[in-house]
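Predict structure. Input: DNA-processing protein DprA, 365 residues.
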Amino acid sequence: MNTALTSSELAAWLRLTESVGPGAARRLLAMAGSAEAVFELPAAALDQTLPPKQRDAFSRPPEHLAELIANAGAWVQQPGHALLTLGDPDYPPQLLATADPPLLLWLQGRRELLATPSLAIVGSRDPTAQGAYNARAFSRALARDGYTIVSGLALGVDAAAHEGALDAGGATIAVVGTGLDQVYPRRNAGLAARLLDGGGLMLSEYALGMPVLQANFPKRNRIIAGLSQGCLVVEAAVQSGSLITARLAAEAGREVFAIPGSIHSPQSRGCHALIRQGAKLVESAEDVREELSGQVAPAAPEVAQAPHEQHALLDAMGFDPVSLDALMARCGWPAPELSAALLELELEGHVARLAGQLFQRRRQG
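Output follows.
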């Protein structure tokens, strides 16, 4: 168990979260000073704070509370598990500064990632092939710069974002909409295991045993936005959870980025709407870096790269526009490998993509 959280404190926090909503709970905490003291407040104070139905529910401990306390007490004693309360000194300050910070954060993995510079990457659960590739490539490039990639472990863009960070040897946080004793969707169980094995972090505001409830997934989007310095939307329909995350990020004063796409693709319309509303249009990871550069500079992780291969390709390009076919002839690389290398260099700001499928090396400095 956390050394800062006694058994009685744990019981009080769990009862509080199970008895009233987060807004009412924060008002009670402000009046009482601690979760334990909340349940010692005089009846008059409770009557002023809670509506009658909520007041009645608050006066009776939930039937499942004893089981929840026992399960939570056993869970937090396991290696890599932790439970942060709203009053914990380690509670992420950037999340605390949002309009609706969760009362409890259930954590599994590297909790120190909560103190690192982070970028949310979100998007469609059914992206185009290009959208999934972009999510993975942007995530990989920015994770190599030292940004922790935050997403929601959903299918599609979320999964690609987590994978890109892990591929780069970087850090990633998955904010989920269930209890941490289960993984949803089940198809991402392998990704969740890889994330934890790779030094990532799983996070939820929901207690153990919380099943899959669709209403919980839009709610967890405020945590994704609140943990991050910025939010990048890769692909999204006009009506989507990703736009909710972007709106919450903007309301919290965070940067919002969007990747443009085809005017004929439904998955691009949400990004285009965000750009019309003031989101920053990005075409490369360098665009994101430039906007976040005034904030705390992250420490880049040590990752296995092949800089000599990048230098060889840049040397082969020269500084004049060149076609993919010409580069294939110069380098002798197969088209898929060459295209992947060019996209990575483009995302890192070393190469520009021109009209007519031409590429040009950017002059540095």
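The chain is about 45% helix and 15% strand.
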